[in-house]
Specification:
This protein is about 55% helix and about 5% strand. The chain is mainly alpha-helical.
Length: about 200
């Protein structure tokens, strides 16, 4: 902590309090500005406390990952578009699992899932139809990120192996893969950066 004190003191002069009057600088002297600082006590000693903004340092991009400003801007747009859906899937998955645990038998669970599927399609199908193929691929990746389970495994778990295989076949026809794993340190490195910025409220 003692090594941080000189840095903190230097930063103090950049934090004027709103509503305080300021004088006119004279020569090399500081202007007459009032500062209101928070304090923190360590080992019985009180120090000025300044909150610094978070700085995120990213590792070097993995080999094979290329950065293009125009493509990255498009990637940011697409990730922001579908990220809320991946969070929705995560939250709904937890809610459904909790509800399934309260049902007494397998028949009731099947009936519940059948009705739930109909309700989900009715609510979100129009929005899903508006997504592009690229956004769909990103969403599949982000679902794996949020649930630690691929879309293929989710379908197999709740709708059976046949349904999972069927939808995987359809997905492959359109050039995507429901079994896609999320790789934040490899090919999905840039997506992970964008999601981190979104979660931190900077995007």
């Amino acid at each position: 902590m003692k090594y941080c004190i000189p840095i903190i003191i230097l930063v103090l002069y950049a934090l004027p309090v709103k509503g305080q009057s300021s004088g006119v600088p004279v020569g090399d002297t500081l202007s007459k500005v009032s500062y209101l600082l928070k304090t923190a006590t360590f080992d019985g000693q009180t120090y000025p406390l300044v909150e610094l903004k978070e700085i995120v340092v990213y590792a070097r991009m993995p080999r094979g990952v290329k950065f293009n400003y125009r493509r990255h801007a498009r990637l940011v747009y697409n990730v922001r578009k579908v990220y809320p859906y991946s969070v929705l899937v995560r939250d709904e998955l937890g809610r459904v699992n909790r509800l399934l645990e309260t049902l007494p038998n397998e028949k009731d669970r099947r009936n519940f899932l059948t009705q739930y599927e109909k309700d989900i399609f009715k609510t979100y199908e129009p929005e899903m139809k508006e997504l592009t193929f690229t956004q769909g691929k990103i969403l599949i990746k982000l679902i794996d990120r949020e649930t630690q389970t691929t879309s293929f495994e989710l379908i197999r778990e709740y709708r059976g192996k046949f349904s999972a295989t069927f939808w995987q076949s359809i997905a492959r026809i359109f050039g995507t893969n429901l079994k896609s794993d999320y790789d934040p340190h490899g090919e999905d490195f840039l997506i992970e950066q964008i999601v981190t910025e979104i979660e931190a409220g900077r995007l």
